[in-house]
Amino acid sequence: MTKQLRIDFVSDVSCPWCAIGYKSLETALLRMGGEVTVDLHFQPFELNPNMGPDGQDIVEHITEKYGATAEQQASSREMIRQRGADVGFTFDMERRGRIYNTFDAHRLLSWAEGEGQQRDLKVALLEAYFTRCEDPSKHDVLLRAVERVGLDRDTAEQILKSDAFADEVREREQFFQRAGIHSVPAIIINQRHLISGGQPPEVFEQALREIAARGDTPQPE
Description:
Strand order of the largest sheet: 2-1-5-6
Protein name: DsbA family oxidoreductase
Structural class: alpha+beta
InterPro entries: DSBA-like_thioredoxin_dom, Thioredoxin-like_sf
Oligomer: single chain
Pfam families: DSBA (PF01323)
Helix content: 40-55%
Distance between the termini: 25 Å
Domain DSBA-like thioredoxin: 7-208
Largest sheet: 4 strands, mixed
Strand content: 5-15%
C-alpha cells in the first residue's frame, strides 16, 4: 500500500547544499518507485537576509562569515561540484563570484506553491544561480525563471512590484526559526522527523522507508 508523506524542505536558493539535498531527495524518491507519494513544500530560509542590493564577493563573504581560507574554499567548491554531479546537478563554481539577497525569490516561490509549480520554479532558480551564475535578486532573472517553467510573467511582475507574499514569507521564516531551524537544508517529514544537511540519496531513502513503515501521519497545522 502506498504511503503518503508530507515533506517541508526548508532552504534558500543561494545554498549549494540545498541544491544537493533536494536532488538527493529526488533520487531517493525515484529509487523507491511507488512506495510513497509525497506532498512537498519548499519553505523559506534566507542565509543572508541583510545582504545589500549589490550582493557581496563570495570569497570575501565566506571568509568573513566562516573564517575559511582560500585553500579551504577551493576544496569546498570542488567537493560541492562533485556532490552535485553525483546527483545530476551542475555547479559552475568558478564563475559564481557573488552572493545575493533572495527575499524576492522566496516571494515568488510562495506564489508558485498556490499555482502548483513551486518545485519547478525552485529548481529553475537553483539552476539560474548555481549553473548559469545569474543574480537571483534581479527581477529580470526571476522573471526568466518564471517563464521557463510556464508561470504567468505578468502576474509575477506585479508581485515583484508590490509587497505581495512578503508577510507570508516572513511568517514562515519565523515559524521555522522558532522551531529550531537555524541552518539549511532542513528536511522535515510528517512535521516531526528532521533530516539536516545535503545528505546522499541513501540516507534519504533509508529514512523515508523507516518513516513510511511506522505509518504515522502529519500533525494538524
